[in-house]
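A protein record in our archive is deliberately plain, so that people and models can read it alike. The tokens are whole numbers drawn from a learned vocabulary of local backbone shapes. For reference, a complete record is included directly beneath this paragraph.
>
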Amino acid sequence: MASSADSLLVRVTAGPSYDPATHQTVQVNSSTPTHITSRVCTANVSVRIQNYRGLPRKSPSTSSYFTHPHHTHDRYSISFSLLPHQTISGSALVFGNDIDHPVRDRLPYGTGTAFKIVKSLIDPGLEGDLYADRPHLYGCALSSINVLRVGEKVDGEAGLGKGTGEGERVIEEGGEGEGVEWRKSRNVPEVAEARKKWFLGKGRAETWEWEEGRVYMGDFFNPYLDFNDFSLKLPGFSLSVLGYLGGEDYLRYVLKNKDNGDVLFVVVFSLLHKEEVEKAEGEAAAKSKSAEKGDEGGRHDEEWSFQPRADDLD
């Protein structure tokens, strides 16, 4: 039986790899970003969702981001500041979605039409295969990211910081400090839409490098994916995905180097059944209370697929 939107909760996690054990629960609509660090990069990632209902329980339902004149119609945003620890070719860095298992037998009617609309009207550079054993849709980050801002060179990881208050910032196209001239020297258009179109040109992505030690800022957003009723709302076409998603399903975004497979960061939107979450939370609270009394009883962890994190209960 298909789940209804009211019976599901969203949990957003982010980390430096595909391994869920490396992820943190994202504080959605918070002013404090999720800080991620690895040998590949350091990043601060913020997620905003309009009309959010999910984990952690006390998450704001919206963000001041959606009152900004450029974002009044958007439904979600993944923004980031990024400090690469190694230089990456402009053509190698991709942003998009992938899944670890085949979904070809579960794709809803209209998926092909939806993809054609996305590719023709939203992101012409998007490439992938939803019918593969490992479905994926990637676009060159230079032409797929809605807003791109070039910062300055910094001295080590501390130069990026942990982004306190960064979640309230609305990133705008352009540059900061000497990053303005660095961007101009590569003849990159100043306007976002022109920049995206420009990088679709043959060979142009190769003229750019994501330079080691330089800070970059990006924002990916759109008005098409509605986390309130779990539907894709494209121009002239709407597609509900509720009947095809459940407790083990997720929407995963990744920023990665396609040439060598290095992952910079991963953001996962998981759909969880509210009943199962509430039951697991109740049992976790009971177990905690029992432990305080010196009682080691309680359920074994493997009995439930959903495990509440400490930061889910904030």
About this structure: The two ends are 32 Å apart (CA to CA).
